[in-house]
Write a structure and sequence with these properties.
heterodimer; A: alpha/beta; four-stranded antiparallel beta sheet; 35% helix; globular; B: 11 helices
Chain lengths: 242, 256
């Protein structure tokens, strides 16, 4: 029995032109925020898609709460990958209600958790606004609310700070810290070491589809360490090319 | 798929459908469009437009209720496929064009369950639109002919309702095309292609009943020319594409 909320072993999925990920091992422990950092195109989104069953691996395995993906308990998973689950013709509250229902909540439960998350992410004044009328940042906040409202014990967020204002970033950071403290395993990706990556307990660096190392979240100059890791990996990779 | 998750998915898809301007406006356009076109054409033919009467054929040239029902049936066969195809294309294709498809992964309500709910909600919407279309044609016929329907006209209205429902089912390839093509446009293209081929087969005449998308229209216009076996084949066609769509949603990967 593993204590990892998410466990990936030897995860490989290759696309034409050399894109994809290869041989990824990853553990996201309960109670931890785990940041996945890498430059654009490093393979972060592909990895997250593999972890959530949006892509099938060429080889390797994924386990969620120690169960294979085809037997995972998805009611306790929350995710936001690329686009928020927000339908333009529906208002904020209705979008959240539908997301809660899809995560297994009854109508009565959904009504309660939606009111709670509206307050938590400061979305109450947008509850009656159609999603298509919201700013990009508020739509992102709505998508994050849909991913977090049912208090999942596995959270996967791809570039969650995209379009968020500084207040939104702080709100998200606090929401993630609360969920990790309650025992959730949180995986967040970022293409730079933003505020969310800075609250991580672990930082894994991915480059050219491979895990190339880790960073100390409490390090003095983690940006420099990050670029050194990536540069060294790129240099090694170039030298190994015929 | 359990009864509970299917009920949840139907509730979710139903809420999306009732808020949709695309579905509402498409249904209204279909109902009013078919009734208005049938009324205008019948009135013009009754006023002695010989060219139009010749184009509409002998039944339409009779005028009155038979003419109204004949024109409405012809228009429904083509316009209905387009309208129901647009509705179904939107229901499936919008998840890809809006990017919401990523949120439909990793849920206790599985993707085949969501796709099943979409098909069920589509059929419910099609029932309402078909009933509205039939009622609109009946009202227009009363207004144009100033006559109540005879028993034969009631039978014609029944066939019109059945044709509209069968046409809605025949739009099923749109759901599959939207999934495979990851959007609205491939599905609309599939519907337009299906319409074009159906028209060619109907115009060609002989054996048209064996082409599933053409059989309901031929049956509604000339009931004696289409066999029960041909209608059964027409029923298998949407079921096959419905099952293919569920299978495609089950195997779906976001690899493009």
């Amino acid at each position: 029995m593993s204590s990892a909320r998410i466990q990936a072993r030897g995860l490989t999925r290759q696309f034409g032109g050399g894109a994809g990920v290869a041989g990824i091992d990853l553990d996201v422990a309960a109670g931890q925020i785990h940041a996945l950092v890498g430059l654009n195109g490093a393979g972060k989104t592909t990895l997250m898609r593999l972890l959530l069953g949006m892509l099938h691996p060429d080889s390797g395995t994924v386990r969620i709460n120690d169960r294979p993906l085809n037997a995972a308990d998805w009611a306790h998973v929350g995710h936001l990958v690329e686009n928020p689950l927000a339908y333009g013709e529906l208002d904020g509250r209705t979008n959240l209600m539908l997301a809660a229902r899809l995560h297994g909540a009854s109508s009565a439960q959904a009504a309660l958790i939606v009111e709670r998350v509206l307050a938590e992410l400061n979305l109450t004044r947008y509850a009656g606004v159609r999603a298509r009328r919201m700013s990009l940042g508020n739509r992102q906040r709505l998508g994050l609310a849909a991913a977090l409202q049912h208090n999942p014990d596995v959270v996967v967020l791809d570039e969650p700070t995209n379009a968020l204002d500084p207040a939104g970033v702080i709100m998200l950071r606090e929401a993630l810290v609360r969920r990790a403290a309650a025992g959730a395993g949180v995986l967040v990706s970022s293409h730079h070491l933003d505020e969310v990556a800075r609250v991580a307990h672990r930082i894994t660096v991915i480059n050219a589809g491979r895990v190339i190392g880790t960073l100390d979240p409490h390090g003095v100059d983690i940006e420099r360490s990050f670029f050194t890791l990536v540069h060294d990996d790129d240099t090694r990779h170039e030298r190994s090319q015929p | 798929m359990t009864a509970r998750t299917l009920a949840t998915a139907i509730a979710v898809e139903g809420r999306k459908a009732t808020a949709s301007r695309v579905l509402t406006s498409t249904a209204i356009l279909l109902m009013c469009g078919v009734a208005a076109l049938a009324a205008a054409t019948t009135a013009a033919a009754a006023d002695g437009n010989e060219q139009l009467a010749a184009k509409l054929g002998p039944l339409a040239a009779e005028g009155g209720w038979p003419a109204m029902l004949n024109v409405a049936t012809q228009v429904t066969a083509a316009a209905g496929l387009l309208a129901f195809g647009v509705g179904l294309s939107w229901m499936f294709g919008r998840e890809f064009t809006d990017g919401t498809i990523t949120g439909l992964f990793g849920l206790p309500v599985t993707r085949p369950t969501i796709a099943s709910a979409k098909l069920i909600v589509f059929l419910l919407w099609a029932c309402v639109a078909s009933a509205g279309l039939t009622a609109a044609v009946a009202l227009a016929a009363v207004a144009v002919t100033r006559q109540a329907p005879s028993p034969a006209d009631w039978a014609g209205l029944g066939r019109l309702l059945a044709l509209a429902l069968m046409t809605a089912a025949l739009a099923a390839p749109a759901a599959w095309a939207a999934t495979v093509g990851r959007g609205l446009l491939p599905a609309i293209a599939a519907v337009v292609g299906l319409m074009a081929v159906t028209q060619i087969v109907v115009v060609a005449g002989a054996g048209g009943g064996w082409f599933p998308p053409a059989a309901p229209a031929l049956w509604a216009l000339l009931p004696d020319t289409v066999t029960a076996a041909q209608l059964m084949l027409a029923a298998v066609f949407p079921v096959a594409f419905g099952l293919l769509t569920l299978h495609t949603w089950r195997r779906l990967q976001l690899d493009r």
